[in-house]
Design goal:
By secondary structure, the protein is an all-alpha fold. The chain contains 2 helices and no strands. The chain has helices spanning 34-38, 44-64.
Length: 77
C-alpha cells in the first residue's frame, strides 16, 4: 500500500488528504446516563465490569456482521 500526499498542503494545514481511499462506516455508541449509573459504585472493578459487558456485547454484534471494532475513549474532565 503506497500513500502519496497531494502536494497542495501547507505548513499550517492540520489535515491533509492522501491519494488512497477506503470505505468505512463509523458508529459512535454511548451508554445513556452511564456516569450517573456508575457514580456511586466505589469498587473500580465493578465499574470496569459494567463497561466491559457493554463493550464486549456490542463488539460481538458488530463482528457477527463482519465489522471490525476500533475503540476510542474520551475521558471526561
Amino acid at each position: 500500500m503506497t500513500f502519496n500526499r497531494i502536494t497542495t498542503e501547507t505548513k499550517s494545514d492540520q489535515i491533509c488528504f492522501i491519494n488512497y481511499t477506503l470505505k468505512y462506516c463509523v458508529c459512535i455508541i454511548d451508554i445513556v446516563n452511564s456516569t450517573r449509573a456508575t457514580v456511586e459504585i466505589i469498587n473500580p472493578q465493578k465499574i470496569m465490569k459494567y463497561y466491559s459487558i457493554f463493550l464486549n456485547t456490542i463488539s460481538s454484534i458488530i463482528k457477527d456482521y463482519g465489522g471490525k471494532v476500533r475503540v476510542a475513549l474520551q475521558l471526561e474532565n
